[in-house]
Amino acid sequence: MGLKTFWVKAKLKSDLMRCFRDGKIVKTVKRGDQNVDFFPQIHDVFVDEEKKAVRFVFTLKSGMDPELLTKREWVFRQVFGENIELSGKTKKFTLWVYSKGMPDNVKYVFEDIQPHLEELFMPLVIGYDRRNNLICLDLKEIHHAILTGSTGSGKSSLFRAILVSIMLYKSPQDVQFLLIDMKNSEFGIYRGGAHVKEVLMDQESVLKALQQVEAEMHRRSKLLDSEDVEHVADLEKKLPVIMVVIDEIIALVDNKKIMKILTNLSCLGRSAGVHIIGAMQSGRAKDVGGQFLNNMNCRISGKQSDATNAKVAGFTTAKNISTPGRMVLSLDGVETHVQVPFMDKQRAKKLLQPFKGKVIQDPNSDIQVSQSCMLEEIKEHIINEFTLEGMEEDE
Ligand SMILES: Nc1ncnc2c1ncn2[C@@H]1O[C@H](COP(=O)(O)OP(=O)(O)OP(=O)(O)O)[C@@H](O)[C@H]1O
Ligand SMILES: [Mg+2]
Question: 289 — phi, psi (to 5°)?
């Protein structure tokens, strides 16, 4: 470490200590007649020159209330400015300080996104973080995900970024979607698509379709057992991942049969390649059922109407969001803010037009798979279309 870096780090460390002192983030212990103050311990100060950001890692002393940090986040903003990100749960916390804010709008450009999808089994595009890294998760790792956020926060738009990216990148033999659209507003554009098994909008057909998926999950579990493998990806015969995507889960919570199947899928689906991604406006998160929510180990939240709703949905930092498409990703207790790349419905529809395919029945499965002739050519067409569009804009 050079001398300059040493002094920069020492100054940053003393700024953070000032936050602890001003915010009274301290544990005071009586020793005889005297009070002794213990502040959180700073373990690491990392200066990311390229991204123009600083990361602090610190731990609270045992016995300190972690809520102190969320309640007194303002003190970090007073010292370091508005562009900070504080994450952590019980003891260990990370504070990122950025030199500039995030963009409020990032256009969805498949060419930029495609390289990040490589090597992922089933990629979920989430958004660009404060360091402009595209965060893409793998469904094989996270299993299931839930999106919450008040109306207009950008949940349906995030579904669009996720679904369109998969449809452009993976073949219908790789993945089949069951799209449940209880608000009858979002998933119409995917109807008839080669990757889409069904678009459902009423409880009766939802129940029927989910019963089929559940039967398929059990069939696959037996197959895994008989072939002695851990995951459908390891089976000799390739089977498509089944993604159950639900816009507005709250509209289903009164139907016990449906919720029971969804809970079963959330418990047992992952090795069978059955995954759930659901969205709901927050507030009634607890109505969805503890076991189901517990299995949603990946949580994403847009802006929440108030701090209580943010808390119910399980987030500490979502209350600070005010921009549509800005989301907090919570994974293993770490909260990361991202901006979801945006495309409107018309654009999504246009991109997916070449994928409207002919549905065929796989004789070995209850799940129908659409025929994808010339998928590579279709992709080529799409990439060209993006390129042309980008060029038009540049002019
Ligand atoms: N990633 C984004 N970037 C920029 N603007 C966005 C983004 N996502 C959403 N918006 C804007 O916010 C509007 C509402 O988004 P969206 O319909 O996805 O919200 P929602 O959370 O699904 O709302 P609801 O709960 O009412 O269905 C969009 O029409 C768009 O104008
Ligand atoms: Mg919506």
Answer: 110, 130
